[in-house]
Design brief:
This protein is of the alpha+beta class. The protein has one domain. It is built from one helix and four strands, in the order βαβββ. A two-stranded parallel sheet has the order 1-2. A two-stranded antiparallel ribbon has the order 3-4. It is extended, with a radius of gyration of 15 Å. The mean pLDDT is about 90.
Length: about 70
């Protein structure tokens, strides 16, 4: 036990890749707004990277996806 108290007011920022499509960027921002409305998360702001990160999307047979 570290003796730390639970924190309920964590702030979260969002970093978006400049290389993602505008529609996907919009969906990410809508999902962020939904977490604010439904979960009460404190999302402070978002930034877009200066250059594309060249992330490649991977999808598992289960439907889970991730970027590399």
């Amino acid at each position: 036990c570290w003796g730390l108290q639970p924190v309920h007011q964590n702030r979260v920022g969002l970093i978006l890749d400049q290389g993602i499509e505008p529609d996907l960027r919009l969906r990410h921002l809508q999902a962020a707004d939904a977490t604010r409305a439904t979960l009460g998360l404190n999302l402070t702001d978002y930034v877009i990277t200066d250059a594309p990160l060249n992330v490649e999307l991977r999808t598992a047979a289960s439907g889970a996806s991730w970027g590399t």
